[in-house]
Amino acid sequence: MTLSSCIRTGSGPDESSSSAEDTYPENCLSAGLSVAFPHTFLWILRDAAITNPSLPFQGEFVSSPHHPVSLCSNGSQRQTLLASLHAIEQDDHREPRSRKRNFHEIINNPDYGWRTYYPPARYGELVPEGDTPYSTVQLEEHQLWSPDYNTIDTASDRCSTDGRKSLATCLADANITVAEAQEMFALFSERMAPLIPTFYATDFGRLPAEPVYALATIYTIARYLPDSSINLASVVYGTSPGTPTQSVTTGPAGGPSSWKSSGGDRNPCENKANAVADHVFQCTSLFILQKSYSMLRSGLAFLVASLTIGGATSQKLTDDAYFYGQSPPVYPAPDVKPHGDWRAAIQKAQELVSQLSLEEKVNLTAGYPSSTGCAGMIAAIERLDFPGLCLQDAGHGVHNTDFVHSWPSNIHIGASWNSALARQKALAQAGEFKRKGVNIMLGPSVGPLGRVVTGGRNWEGYSVDPYLSGVLVKETVFGTQEGGVVATTKHYIANEQEARRGGSNKTVAVSSNIDDVTMHELYLWPFQDALHAGTGSIMCSYQRINNSYGCQNSKALNGMLKTELGFQGFVVTDWNAQHSGVASALAGLDMAMPVPYDFWGPRLLESVRNSSVPESRVDDMVVRILASWYHMGQDSKFPEPGFGLAKNLALPHPIVEARKSSDKPILLQSAVEGHVLVKNIKGALPLKKPKLLSILGYSAKAPDRNMVPSEGPSAWAWGFQSGNSSELVEGILLSENGVVRTLSPSGYNGTLVHGGGSGATSLSTFLSPFDALMVRADKEDTQLYWDFHTSDPIVSGVSDACLVFGNAQASEALDRRGLRDDYTDTLILNVASKCFNTIVILHNAGPRIVDPWIDHPNVTAVVFAHLPGQDTGKALVSLIYGEVNFSGKLPYTLAKNESDYGALLLPDLPEGNFVNFPQSDFSEGVYIDYRHFDRDGIEPRYEFGFGLSYTTFHYQNLDIRTEQRRLKQYPEGPILSGGASDLWDVVATVTAEVKNTGSVTGAEVAQLYVGIPGGPVKQLRGFQKPTVRAGKVEKLTFKLTRRDLSVWDPVVQKWRLQNGEYKIYVGSSSRKLPLAGNLKIGK
């Protein structure tokens, strides 16, 4: 039976049948066309099956190149299709988009730079920034003709026209002429291109499956027309039929530039284009749909449905020209200006640069692969005794090496609210970096700030509040650079989610769309503090800022950073975050990591020689880099770069001990102070020589393994000892293909000491909570029972207390799935139902909802233990046994329900018209976290700044005094590091007293909030953490600067100090503020 007879006799699936397979004759299936779908759509279909198994695919994919797939439509469906296409064309009054945007135009566009495209692991992985789905097909065709891509065989004996003739028969059976098929393709290329991004976004859950089939069908018909019908080059490259394809002048030898023009019947083996097409058609092993009965039944009619879904569907953006101008251009890049304590270092750098050749200068602007374990390396210039530079992660300890300490994460330091401790930790930590030969520490992080509550990297920062984050990052920069190591403050700026952070081969990176006021008053604030402290480096971020990539955003780099804030150091990319050559150089980027790829290196050298980039711009890049080296004193008695970082820790290598025993008290104290006690009733804590303790839950013990890998990435290197490292690997790989993956709520293989990703620390030694409890129990002869694996464990009826351990993990590359964990909640409730004194300890990388069990009468104490580093066990035991007092406070707001966070609970994903250009609109302005809860009258479970102690405190005697001199509205001081010098002038002083009304000594975090006219009800603008003995009083003094009381004026582009009345509040948290008064500025 022929395919045409199947169609004419009506054989095929019946509309009323529940199973097409039951009613479709097998011989009709066998008579189907052996058509290889174009590879682009094959991979789309495969992605659809992988990401959404519920789609109605009939059977599995197979790799046979001859498997039958039916592609024909009947005559009535053809008429419906053509009528619909004509109607859409008539309704479209826009100028048709040119299809002549070929690969040559893309790679020669200075906005994109130049990149070598290596054969991908799968088709469609490498798409230049700003490219469109249509030119993605062009790019893939270029890859197929690449001389380095040896998977395509064009031998003439592999060519055949059988399939093409069969397709012509299929068209005839459907009463579709060649001319009509050409017309369909022309309409498709103009009108259906906006629909393709939907498939590139892999958001198949929101779309019917049928348009995928339909697009594959129409493209295949256009691609594989009979010999005399259409030039393949014109289909792929947009040239007109009959036009010689020699006009397409790019591509490797033997590629499109050498194609013959079409005309008349031809042997498909006579030109390479058709030879390869036939090879793909007949010979290549591709994933083909095994069965597609619905295609035979409805065929191209499905395309009509996809076209008539709605106007939004047909209006999806495919070109980033729509966004041009949203980020204001600021040029040229300003040269560094010697001033302050950087003056001598900059002058030394300028002298050294004057001795360098252009080639040597260019070599200093990008990394190179080295034999060390450094994350990045800058090459040495031996003739001038410059040894090179080693850059290494991260802000919580030396990453991916041995013989170093695992320090508490920054969220833990944020919970300590101890600025002096932050500086002490940074100084000790810098010593380890220096002893390992690290010149540049890739931290600290104040971006993300924490706008998205489930953001995967929030734990790397200090707090969601810009003031608290700013104070702590300032002290961290001071301590790090006092230790002789360059601090790299990151990720600049508005990098607030992991989802789509760097884009994929299907979409560009998400854009953080943010107004100027919100930028300055919230996200820029802590970076400004870091610059005021003299940070030597700033790392630009992956995502776009107002639709311009962060590492080529001239407003962010040239404008805010180097002009407004007077930055004297250098800007380095996050790894692989560079998207252009000339554009990024002119926008203010100074160093590309980990290597220049084809953007810089020889290309930057060429750009200088052809005057695209002034050599003075390269001079400024290198001066900034070398000035940081000089400023830290690294030109004298600094270890050889990277000498203590082995490339492969599993192989024999020199041991370089970076730890110092004198640092251990700081290590322990920084672990202690980040614990926050949020509930303590019935005298549950501290423990008083208990006779029997039950230790329950997966997070009490150490992970099962702490082992370096023999090679490649590992759970150890990326901080997933307690979790499932495959989640990180899958998350990274899927994100490259446009699929958003979230992280499981908890790491069930042991306690957490840090988060995951490049910020993870390296464990040399550590005591888990269970290990430390065992040591204490042995000392006091306490009976211990434990169960780390059961969700409903047996509980001894004579337990003095049941300690239940859970965690809430987070990682780079993956946002958190949510703020709940059903397994852990069930564990806690099961234990509480059997134990009258249930104490919950959560090692959490961020907010974690507790309302399912927090009010249970048997849950007597709750501790947020955050991420304490290697001293987790020792710190916890010292706290719960009362050897030291709890003093931590929450650096975020904990809601009662996830929904209380509103739209900022989860990251923004591609949708609607912008599915190919993801948008994240910061429309909430400055109203995140407690500002949001205050404005909307939402009662939190535990407010920002909340934390309990074993003692109590009383606040008294508030006094507010202003400067008597007349204050001008705008600062007028010279621009120094961090901005106008007079922004830090003190304009008011607030004093108060805090009394310890309990029976034990404790440290109290006293907080000052200001209600600025026209702004949020209150904003943190001061804190102190005095230690107060029982019954004693300590005086508090808060100095308010011009910047603390100002608002950003977007018109004048300066901070404005308003005349009027300011509310002043002092207390123990953002909602417990017993002292209140007024501060008057101006008349």
From TrEMBL:
<protein>
    <recommendedName>
        <fullName>beta-glucosidase</fullName>
        <ecNumber>3.2.1.21</ecNumber>
    </recommendedName>
</protein>
<dbReference type="InterPro" id="IPR001764">
    <property type="entry name" value="Glyco_hydro_3_N"/>
</dbReference>
<dbReference type="GO" id="GO:0005576">
    <property type="term" value="C:extracellular region"/>
</dbReference>
<comment type="similarity">
    <text>Belongs to the glycosyl hydrolase 3 family.</text>
</comment>
<feature type="region of interest" description="Disordered">
    <location>
        <begin position="1"/>
        <end position="23"/>
    </location>
</feature>
<dbReference type="GO" id="GO:0008422">
    <property type="term" value="F:beta-glucosidase activity"/>
</dbReference>
<dbReference type="Pfam" id="PF01915">
    <property type="entry name" value="Glyco_hydro_3_C"/>
</dbReference>
<dbReference type="Pfam" id="PF00933">
    <property type="entry name" value="Glyco_hydro_3"/>
</dbReference>
<comment type="function">
    <text>Beta-glucosidases are one of a number of cellulolytic enzymes involved in the degradation of cellulosic biomass. Catalyzes the last step releasing glucose from the inhibitory cellobiose.</text>
</comment>
<dbReference type="InterPro" id="IPR026891">
    <property type="entry name" value="Fn3-like"/>
</dbReference>
<keyword id="KW-0136">Cellulose degradation</keyword>
<keyword id="KW-0964">Secreted</keyword>
<keyword id="KW-0624">Polysaccharide degradation</keyword>
<keyword id="KW-0326">Glycosidase</keyword>
<dbReference type="Pfam" id="PF14310">
    <property type="entry name" value="Fn3-like"/>
</dbReference>
<feature type="domain" description="Fibronectin type III-like">
    <location>
        <begin position="1004"/>
        <end position="1070"/>
    </location>
</feature>
<keyword id="KW-0732">Signal</keyword>
<keyword id="KW-0119">Carbohydrate metabolism</keyword>
<dbReference type="InterPro" id="IPR036962">
    <property type="entry name" value="Glyco_hydro_3_N_sf"/>
</dbReference>
<dbReference type="InterPro" id="IPR050288">
    <property type="entry name" value="Cellulose_deg_GH3"/>
</dbReference>
<dbReference type="InterPro" id="IPR002772">
    <property type="entry name" value="Glyco_hydro_3_C"/>
</dbReference>
<comment type="pathway">
    <text>Glycan metabolism; cellulose degradation.</text>
</comment>
<dbReference type="InterPro" id="IPR036881">
    <property type="entry name" value="Glyco_hydro_3_C_sf"/>
</dbReference>
<feature type="compositionally biased region" description="Polar residues">
    <location>
        <begin position="1"/>
        <end position="21"/>
    </location>
</feature>
<dbReference type="InterPro" id="IPR017853">
    <property type="entry name" value="GH"/>
</dbReference>
<dbReference type="InterPro" id="IPR019800">
    <property type="entry name" value="Glyco_hydro_3_AS"/>
</dbReference>
<dbReference type="GO" id="GO:0030245">
    <property type="term" value="P:cellulose catabolic process"/>
</dbReference>
<feature type="region of interest" description="Disordered">
    <location>
        <begin position="243"/>
        <end position="266"/>
    </location>
</feature>
<keyword id="KW-0378">Hydrolase</keyword>
<keyword id="KW-0325">Glycoprotein</keyword>
<dbReference type="InterPro" id="IPR013783">
    <property type="entry name" value="Ig-like_fold"/>
</dbReference>
